[in-house]
Amino acid sequence: MSLRSQLLKGILDGCVLAVIEKEPVYGYELSKKLQEVGLSDISEGTIYPVLLRLQKNGLIRGEMQPSESGPNRKYYHLTAEGKGSLEMIASEWKQIVEPVNSLFKGRNLQ
Amino acid sequence: MKSKQLIEENNRKREQLTPQNDTYYSDMLIYIRLQLSLSEQQSEEVLMEMLDHLLDGQYEGKSAQDIFGDDPKRYADEIILNLPKEQKREVIPFILRIVIDLVSWMLMIRGVVILVFSQFNIGNVSTSVYLFSTLFIFAFILGSITFGIWYIFRIIKQSLFKEKANEKKNIVKAGLFGAVSMGLIIAVSKFTPEFGPAFHFSWWASLLTGGTLWVIIFMLKKLDIGFR
Questions:
Q1: Of the candidates B144, B127, B140, B151, which has an alpha carbon nearest to the alpha carbon of residue B204?
Q2: Containing H/E element for B19?
Q3: Which domains are assigned to chain A?
Q4: What is the ipTM for the molecules in this complex?
Q5: pTM as predicted
Q6: With an 8 Å Cβ cutoff, is A33 touching chain B?
Q7: Would you call B53 and A71 a contact, using CB atoms and an 8 Å cutoff?
Q8: CA–CA separation, A29 and A31 (whole Å)
Q9: What is the pLDDT of residues B148-188, one digit of tens each?
Q10: What phi, psi does B38 have (nearest 5°)?
Q11: Which of B57-66, B158-167, B200-209 has the lowest mean pLDDT?
Q12: Of the candidates A28, A43, A53, which has its C-beta nearest B69's C-beta?
């Protein structure tokens, strides 16, 4: 596994929760939104095991609802517990990103 | 939506898949459904989400490999790992229904067999039931059914995710199991000594009890209360 995909794997839960926090989405929309923000190398299917785990842990809940295009889709909503977890992940992330950024400062990154 | 409706909808939607995507998806579907200990509702929901996603992707020219990766078995294992277990209150009625169904058929068949045999005077048919012998034979039959389900599921699992499945070999295996277990059941019921308290149980009582049980199970299934 590449370094990039290992890093992503660790933070994917947080990314998924953050998308769902903005508005309820179903699986296909979620993968589209992750790709739109630039996380394009997450293979689309990866989100389903993640969604199942987050559901099992009570961080999100799925509801069958008619979609804009018509057929029923399972929309995911953030629970109160999920909101708490997202806040924690975001603050953990900040504590890592800021020091690492300062260490890497001054390099010519592409 | 109940799992039964989801299964029906899944069958309908699957027809829209291209042959390659259908092979890829259907193997995962069977593999995941074979996990009897997992929540049926949750399994069917995620299978429907995956199918919807695959269909959306298909319209954009993507293949199942593009979406779920090159290793469908590994992907399905990942799904299984994260699915919740079936609740005990769902499992017990399910097993109970199968057992009662089996008992009802055995009682009805027993009634008919005794009736036919006594009508045509074939052999000496005893209408006595020896409690412990009967329980022993019944436990043996249940045991071989359980083993059979496990064995046939194993054969199906091994046939999934392969370029070329050896179907003939699998049919022979399953057939052989059926023949051997049938033989064993007949041998056990013939050679189990009669012991324990005995009581008289006539053909019509047997038929009536079996029929009543069957109707009850059938009605409960129709009404969808508890017994599913």
A1: B127
A2: helix B19-33
A3: 3-104 (1.10.10.10)
A4: 0.87
A5: 0.82
A6: no
A7: no
A8: 6
A9: 999 999 999 888 888 776 788 889 999 999 999 999 999 99
A10: -90, 155
A11: B158-167
A12: A43
